[in-house]
Each structure stands twice: as C-alpha cells, then as structure tokens.
Amino acid sequence: MKNIIEELWNGEINPQDTLVDNNPHYKELQHLQSRNKSELLESLSEEQKEKLEKYCDTTLEMNSVSEREAFASGFRIALRLACAALADKTNE
C-alpha cells in the first residue's frame, strides 16, 4: 500500500474528479444549466455570445480560485484537529 503523501505528490489523488459524480442534485443542476445556456445562446448575436463566453470563463476561474482556497482552509482545519487530537492523547 502506497503512502498517501506519495500518492498526493504523484497526482494519483484527484478528489475534484469524483466529488460530485454520485450527487443527483448536482447532475440535475448541471443538466439545467446546460439547457438554459443552450437556449440563451440561440437568442444572442455573435458579439453577445463572445461577451457571454468571456463572462463564463471569468466565472469558472473565480470558482477555481474559491475552491482552491476552500480546500486549503479545510486542509489547515483538518491538520489543527489532528494536532489537537494527538495532543489530547499524549496528555492522557
């Protein structure tokens, strides 16, 4: 069995790829978003489509930054919890 640190370093752990795979609510929202975007694109001029695409790209980038920060924050909290648990165990 590999060390989890090695797996993380080697890029073998990708939680973002499976985070919402089995979430029916997410899949429903994804379908709705796709349908709404298709309907919207049909009603836009080429210039408006380009502006929408730029908006969507910016939104995706912002979401990526937000997710990365949330992951880092969660990781720090998990480490603090682990340290607190270990400290309590050594004080017993």
The value of Rg in angstroms is 21 Å
What structural class results from the helix and strand content? Answer: mainly alpha
Distance between the termini: 31 Å
Q: Unreliable stretches, pLDDT < 50, 5 or more residues? A: none
Number of helices: 4
Number of domains: 2
The fraction of residues assigned to DSSP E strands is under 5%
Main beta-sheet annotation:
none
Notable traits:
0% strand, 80% helix, 92 residues, elongated, 2 domains
Write the layout of secondary structure elements.
Blueprint (H helix, E strand, L loop, with lengths): L3 H6 L5 H4 L5 H19 L3 H45 L2
What does this structure look like?
By secondary structure, the chain is mostly helical. It has four helices and no strands. It has two domains: 43 residues, no CATH class; 47 residues. Helices cover 80% and strands 0% of the residues. The longest helix has 45 residues. It is elongated.
